[in-house]
Specification:
The model has no long low-confidence stretch (mean pLDDT 88). The chain is of the alpha/beta class. It has seven helices and six strands. The protein has one domain (14-173): P-loop containing nucleotide triphosphate hydrolases (Rossmann fold, 3-Layer(aba) Sandwich), CATH 3.40.50.300. The longest helix has 18 residues, at 86-103. Helix content is 39%, strand content 17%.
Length: 183
């Protein structure tokens, strides 16, 4: 018999890879819940938001947390799948450069790569390069990958895979995104 604490300590020592994906809402929110747990334990967390140049409501809150570094890479505009602009590609590549630095920095215990699945799906970054970066991490860094449509290679490296499924949401009934709920 084992305790929940023992399981957590074993996972923490190893450093887990989370893959949070699906067409339901809440992928970033779930990753922020993980972030809060780690901050409460006195751990340091880096979060790189790919394709997010807009100051979402969580940005000001994250900025107030001790031990958390937030990097936004993207513009405030939506990226068009199939024909991204040069700046969209440059911003995603900038996010990967930040990830390369942070993943080898012993000062970080967790690295959240928010919307990296979408960046790979849209062709802004190479999924194999992301895997290469993750494989060079200093253990026990835990890595969280979020977003819709992750490439198959992300499933192969993930220790924990969570799929968010939309069952019911006001947006499908024509209600626009609401501040504090959807962004």
């Amino acid at each position: 018999m084992y305790s929940d604490r023992m399981v957590f300590i074993i996972a923490e020592e190893k450093g887990s890879i989370f893959l949070i994906h699906g067409h339901g809402k809440g992928k970033t929110t779930l990753s922020l819940g993980l972030l809060l747990r780690w901050v409460e334990m006195g751990k340091n967390v880096g979060i790189i938001q790919f394709m997010k140049g807009y100051q979402y409501s969580e940005c000001s809150f994250i900025g107030k947390l001790k031990g958390v570094s937030l990097f936004q890479t993207g513009t405030p505009l939506f990226v068009k799948k199939g024909s991204p602009s040069r700046i969209d590609i440059n911003e995603a590549e900038r996010g990967l450069l930040i990830a390369k630095d942070l993943i080898k920095d012993p000062g970080y215990d967790m690295l959240i790569l928010d919307e990296i699945n979408v960046a790979a799906d849209y062709g802004l970054i190479c999924a194999k390069e992301v895997v290469s970066i993750i494989q060079k991490r200093i253990s026990p860094v835990t890595v969280v990958l979020t977003g819709r449509n992750p490439p198959e290679i992300f499933f192969a490296i993930a220790d924990i895979t969570i799929e968010m499924q939309e069952v019911k949401h006001p947006f499908t009934g024509g209600i626009l995104a609401r501040k504090g709920i959807d962004f």
